[in-house]
UniProtKB/TrEMBL annotation:
Name of the molecule in the record: Transcriptional regulator, RpiR family
SUPFAM superfamilies xref list: Homeodomain-like, SIS domain
Gene Ontology terms, MF aspect: carbohydrate derivative binding; DNA binding; DNA-binding transcription factor activity
InterPro entries cross-referenced by the UniProt entry: Homeodomain-like_sf, HTH_RpiR, RpiR-like, SIS_dom, SIS_dom_sf, WH-like_DNA-bd_sf
Gene3D superfamilies (alphabetical): Glucose-6-phosphate isomerase like protein, domain 1 (3.40.50.10490), Winged helix-like DNA-binding domain superfamily/Winged helix DNA-binding domain (1.10.10.10)
GO biological process: carbohydrate derivative metabolic process
Pfam families linked: HTH_6 (PF01418), SIS (PF01380)
Domain HTH rpiR-type positions: 6-82
């Protein structure tokens, strides 16, 4: 199904409910319990609405989805900012033979080849290569991706810095122009208000901003260009970022491939590590 807003989905549910008494029963329950339904299985929805599971499947098909799985995935994308951690405790005991977290992450990873072929990825690589000073930014859960990205981007290019709320750089970027700076930000649900306001402030100074986010309707799209869209898995106590991490690694690799003398740079880093005994050799202890 094409991209849809929550209001459009509500109207479609109401319209589909008019098709039969059973559909009306399902539609009424969904309309009154959107957040709860977004966390349900088809069996749970059928039990809650007091209809058969087949009726739930037919209802979702009538809505224009391939089945319940697609319907609930779209609903989750539209509403999961409203989820609260206690509601996700249900994911602590997944089915032994069908863990929804693993299923979602497998599906997310299967979408990566198409994402990596998109023009937005090429634009992001150029953005990172051409930035004299690259600042990686994020807040709350989104910021957990930054250390990984910063560590490896620093191996393939110079002047990689980190900005998170409360740092001196965070405040400096928001308060005055930074003519040699470009910001790459990670923006995933639940979208931190402090991060979105900060990005908006950056654009007032003309600071270029690129972003990695989870959906086409992400609020960061109002200010970021390019904007990479990559799915996250929500079927756990906390969101899982397997696909964003792989996409980040892909970006690092593509930047390295277009960096002159990258082999010499990596060799210099390796020689430093060897000289300073950065890593423990196999079969040796730290004191050997």
């Amino acid at each position: 199904m094409a991209s849809i807003t929550l209001d459009e989905l509500r109207r479609q549910v109401d319209k589909t409910g008019d098709l039969s008494p059973v559909n009306r029963q399902i539609a009424a329950f969904i309309a009154d319990h959107l957040r709860e339904v977004s966390l349900m299985t088809a069996t749970e929805l059928a039990e809650a609405a007091q209809v058969s599971q087949a009726s739930v499947t037919r209802f979702c098909t009538a809505l224009g989805f391939s089945g319940f799985s697609e319907f609930v995935r779209v609903l989750q994308d539209l509403i999961r900012e409203e989820w609260q951690a206690p509601e996700r405790v249900r994911y602590l005991k997944p089915a032994a033979d069908d863990d929804p977290l693993l299923t979602q992450e497998r599906q997310n990873l299967e979408r990566l080849p198409a994402i990596c072929r998109s023009p937005a990825v090429d634009e992001a690589v150029r953005f990172i290569l051409e930035a004299p000073r690259l600042v990686l930014a994020g807040a709350r859960a989104s910021a957990t991706l930054i250390p990984y990205a910063a560590y490896f981007f620093s191996k393939v290019r110079d002047r990689v810095e980190i900005a998170t709320p409360g740092t001196i750089l965070w405040d400096a970027l928001a308060s005055r122009p930074q003519p040699d700076t470009a910001v790459f930000t990670f923006v995933f649900p639940r979208y931190p208000a402090v991060l979105l306001q900060w990005i908006k402030d950056l654009t007032q100074w003309g600071t270029p901003v690129a972003a990695m986010t989870d959906r086409e309707r992400s609020p960061v799209r109002a200010w970021a260009d390019p904007c990479l869209v990559v799915p996250v898995a929500s079927a756990s106590l906390f969101d899982s970022y397997a696909a964003p991490l792989v996409l980040t690694n892909y970006l690092i690799r593509q930047v390295a491939a277009k960096t002159p003398d990258i082999a010499r740079r990596l060799e210099a880093i390796e020689q430093y590590d060897i000289t300073h005994h950065v890593y423990v050799r196999a079969g040796k202890g730290p004191a050997d």
